[in-house]
Amino acid sequence: MERGELFRLHSIQQYDETKLLKTVRASVKSLYYDYLITLVKEVNTKRNQEEPLYFVHLKYNDSFKTIKVYNGELEEVSVEK
């Protein structure tokens, strides 16, 4: 075990749409097909080791949304117009 691993409670990775799992991308795009995926935050914790939690940031014209994706379910957590 590397130093610091014992105390790590979570990790967060940020990346663009091209690195998002295709299944997650497909589920988001099936509902928000006109939106551009601008940023993805992948959260891994000790509790959700098998399935990461994703926050997908979307943009359409002057409208912004953040979608939480976990266990195949999508939930809007933020909407800005």
Characterise this structure.
This protein is mainly β and 81 residues long. It has one domain. 12% of the residues lie in helices and 49% in strands. It contains one helix and five strands; from the N terminus they run βαββββ. A five-stranded antiparallel sheet has the order 1-2-3-4-5, covered by helices on one side. A hairpin with a 2-residue loop joins β4 and β5. The longest helix has 10 residues. The radius of gyration is 14 Å and the shape is globular. The termini are far apart. The mean pLDDT is 90.
Structural key phrases:
81 residues, globular, 12% helix, 5 strands
Helix percent band: 10-25%
Q: Briefly note the structural class of the backbone.
A: mainly beta
For the largest beta-sheet, the strand count, sense and barrel status come to:
5 strands, antiparallel
Got a strand count? 5
Beta-strand content? over 45%
Show unreliable segments. none
Give the termini distance in whole angstroms. Answer: 46 Å
What count of structural domains?
1
The radius of gyration over CA amounts to 14 Å
Question: What topology, given as strand order, has the largest sheet?
Answer: 1-2-3-4-5
| Shape estimate | globular
Helices, by number, come to 1
